[in-house]
Amino acid sequence: MRNSEIKKLTVNDFIEILGEEPQPEGLFVYISEKNEEIPFTFPFKSPDYSLVHIISGSIKLRVNLISKTLSKNETISLSPKNVIQILEMSTDLQFININFSTDFILESFLSKTGVEAFDYFTVSNTPKLKLTDNEGETLLTLTKLLRHFNKLKKAVFKKEIVKNIFGTIMYSYAELFKRHYPDMKVELTRQEELAFRFWKILEENATTERTVKFYADALCVTTGHLSKTLKQLTGKTASQLIDDSVIMEARLLLENPQYSIAQIAENLNFSDQSFFGKYFKKHIGLSPSQYRNEKRK
Q1: For residues 128 and 70, is the Cβ–Cβ distance under 8 A?
Q2: Average pLDDT over residues 257-269
Q3: pLDDT (tens digit, 9 = 90+) per residue, 10-34?
Q4: What is the mean pLDDT of residues 61-83?
Q5: How does pLDDT run across 167-178, given as a tens digit for each residue?
Q6: Could you tell me what percentage of the chain is helix, strand and coil, using 3-state DSSP and rounding each to the nearest 5?
Q7: Are 103 and 26 within 8 A, CB to CB?
Q8: pTM for the structure as a whole
Q9: How many other CB atoms sit within 10 Å of the CB of residue 89?
Q10: Whose CA is closest to 120, among 39, 183, 207, 34?
Q11: Within 10 A of 99 (CB to CB), how many other CB atoms are there?
Q12: List of domains in the chain
């Protein structure tokens, strides 16, 4: 198989092929209907991660030239490393596909939990898992909830609900995976390892350190190499990810009325309230006081 034959399909490509409505960037939750035809037969790679679960019927895939047949209650995790080709689909096939980006994981999850729970996505030849009927029903219920809340246009706690349901699904799968394959070797690329190490250091220092040089020095790499690597994996530079982390913390503090804006500026290590206000407005489009007032409505 020549590289020129392998197409790259983004989430937007899948949405167009499947005739689905767009969902928020970073997470796409799909539950198929029965009797669908094979949407495409060519080999492809995706820049994102996927968890695929078979509700009924069966599908035959080629993953990195290895054929795998998935049947009812069987699940597999796929990564951007995988070259995938759909070979066969039964007429009664119904499946779940939870597709998510590295950026979604880094921003929403790994900063609070650690990479060890998700290392099954780094295995080059990921084995499939067989779930019990109860485990399969639970996964389907959780996926329906995740899809429902991810598609909501307006919900006060949508982001938190989505992260928690997504986390429950991923931790449950990680628990099953580690139970079935306790000795499976983790295979992080150098770029992935650097990104996860960066995120761990950022989580510990975002409120006090906002320069790329600080993180590059801590990781013993150049600022250019760090930003290039993170840009390739997440779509954002080191500076953008640092800003995202600071803004996330600032928003959480602003939603807590016990802190004054001056106290928040001090807690986040800004030289003064005015500088914090300009920084916040640059990224959010509202001043800290405007943002706080909007949240009170």
Answers
A1: yes
A2: 90
A3: 888 888 888 888 888 889 999 987 6
A4: 86
A5: 899 888 888 888
A6: 50, 15, 30
A7: yes
A8: 0.65
A9: 19
A10: 183
A11: 22
A12: 3-180 (2.60.120.280), 190-296 (1.10.10.60)
